[in-house]
From TrEMBL:
<feature type="signal peptide">
    <location>
        <begin position="1"/>
        <end position="21"/>
    </location>
</feature>
<keyword id="KW-0732">Signal</keyword>
<protein>
    <recommendedName>
        <fullName>Adhesin domain-containing protein</fullName>
    </recommendedName>
</protein>
Amino acid sequence: MKKLALAMTLIAASISTNLYAADEKRITETLTMNQGQNLEIDFPVGSIEIITVDGNELSIEIEIEGKDEGWFSKNRDVSNIELNKRVRDNRISLEIDEDNLNQEWVIKVPKSAAIDIEVGVGSIEIQKLENSVDADVGVGSIRIDTVLDDFKRIDLSTGVGDTSIKGFSGDLESSRNIVSSETSYSGNGEYSIEAEVGVGDIKVRK
């Protein structure tokens, strides 16, 4: 009888562990980027932190958590969720286009690559930017910190929220209409930044 009770306890613990593990998943991958390849990322809900680095390695870490799918239901099983990759001569595209998930991305990308990111709801944070970037968030925020002294062009726009650019010596223009905000900059640099948020704030700092 004791052996049966022990066996049932172990089975219950195993089932509990499997149910918990199915709610969360971690994806890690490393790719090699060629000179001239840019990076494109798209996902519905979550956050992304991007750090530009020397070398040609693209490091990808994604934490995925399933959300509650409704009354009397457990969180979504994410065990079968995979990262969709498309590798072309001039671009690497990464995407997890799935509902009822929260995604937290940490990306280390070669500084030689331009970046294009689209997030439905969430935040984008870029550190040590040394190239061009095009960033779009529906609801959330964008923060970009750069080590470059200047840019050719920076254009920021929010439907509801604030925009700000600091640390550059070129021509800066800002306009605000009740709840919306636009800030643009023209300089003598090589690269450009374009960022747009539907509801939320955008900050660019040197």
